[in-house]
Amino acid sequence: MALHIPCNTNSKPDVDVLIGPAPNFTKVQPDIIQAGLSHPGLMCLYHADINSDPSKKIYQTDIAIANESNLRGANANGANGVNANGAN
After folding, report:
1. Is the overall model pTM greater than 0.70, yes or no?
2. Which long-range contacts (CB under 8 A, 24 or more apart) does 23-32 make?
3. Average pLDDT, stretch 57-71?
4. For residues 88 and 81, what is the distance between their CA atoms, to the nearest angstrom?
5. Which pLDDT does position 72 carry in this prediction?
6. Phi first, then psi: what are they for 54, rounded to 5°?
7. 54-82 b/e with 16+ CB inside 10 Å = b?
8. Quick check: helix, strand or coil at residue 16?
């Protein structure tokens, strides 16, 4: 999966990326894609693998992005968005 999401100046995502069968999500750490496609402190492009293993009854059926900041309607970089509880 590719994600173009807000990031801090250290290239860490400003939001949490979650996968798994809802509501049992697991936080994943996506890998940044540099190559001029990421702009630390603004928006960065990331990649994360989504693996299911039916033999072990592990199914990754849902993907979520959670914004745990206290900001309403804007992230730390000023981009408009929706926060984790759906308000903007």
Report:
1. no
2. 25/62, 25/64, 30/1, 30/3, 32/7
3. 78
4. 6
5. 53
6. -55, -30
7. eeeeeebeebeeebeeeeeeebeeeeebe
8. strand
Q: What is the mean pLDDT of residues 43-70?
A: 83
| CA dist., res. 39 & res. 36, Å (int) | 7
Q: Is residue 66 within 8 Å of 18, Cβ to Cβ?
A: yes
CA torsion, points 14, 60, 25, 42, in degrees to nearest 10? Answer: 0
Greatest pairwise CA separation for the chain in angstroms: 44
Name residue, tokens 């603004």.
42
| Token output for 12 | 């860490």
pLDDT digits (tens, 9 = 90+) for 19-52: 888 888 889 999 999 889 999 999 999 998 888 7
